[in-house]
Amino acid sequence: MIRARTLNLGVALLALVVGACSSVPPVRYFTLVPAPGGEATGAPSAQPFQFELLPVTVPAQVDQPQLVVRQGGQGVAMLQGQRWIAPLGDEVRGALSADLTRDFHAQDVTSLPAQGKSTVRIKVDVRRFDSVPASYAYLDAAWSVRPLKGGEPLACTSRITETVGEGYDALVQGHQQAIARLAGEIGAVAGALASGQSASCPTT
């Protein structure tokens, strides 16, 4: 009798555990890197160039596997069920590299030898990466471009806001669009400096 009761208790506990696990919503993963084959948005007359893109830094507050969103003036929420597929700094760097390659016919030669074309080194520090669902995605970045064959670096700042709709898909898409705009500003400067021309920081 005792053995039967113990067995029944074990079966009941197992059923509770299975039921609890099945009720947990699945984790969704997001990326900032655009899908291949998108339409180029850079200047059609831009000269191709090579670039080294250093690792991108992001604020510690949002450097989490989970999406971190603002709530009101002071609150934030870490969304356990909504996560980045890679560290946020790597995601931003990957998106910038893809956008520069697509929009300016540039080549990312980071960790590779240059192949005879003018090469520039790009450094990006993201100072704010704000996410407000159904409202906006905001990006504040300090960045610099320096020709590797000599010349002074040009240091600039970009502050970009994208309005977003309902849902986390729209929020991530807003950040993708903000990074694409940042890549456009960086690429215009990088292309000019790589070809030996003067350049100035964009006004945003």
Helical/strand content category: alpha/beta
Shape type:
elongated
What is the first-to-last residue Cα distance? Answer: 78 Å
Residue fraction in strands: 25-35%
Low-confidence stretches: 1-7, 9-21
**Average residue-wise pLDDT:** 87
Using the CA coordinates, give the radius of gyration.
23 Å
Brief summary of the model shown:
The chain is of the alpha/beta class and 204 residues long. It contains three helices and eight strands; from the N terminus they run αββββαββββα.
Can you offer a commentary on this structure?
By secondary structure, this protein is α/β, with parallel strands linked by helices. 32% of the residues lie in helices and 30% in strands. The chain is built from 3 helices and 8 strands. It has a 5-stranded mixed sheet with strand order 5-2-6-7-8, with helices on one face. The protein has a 3-stranded mixed sheet with strand order 1-4-3, with helices on one face. The longest helix has 27 residues.
List keywords for this structure.
8 strands, elongated, 204 residues, five-stranded mixed beta sheet, three-stranded mixed beta sheet, alpha/beta
Secondary structure layout plus pairing:
Layout (H helix, E strand, L loop, with lengths): L1 H22 L4 E3 L19 E4 L12 E6 L3 E10 L3 H17 L2 E2 L10 E14 L3 E12 L6 E10 L4 H27 L10
Helix pairs in contact: 2-3
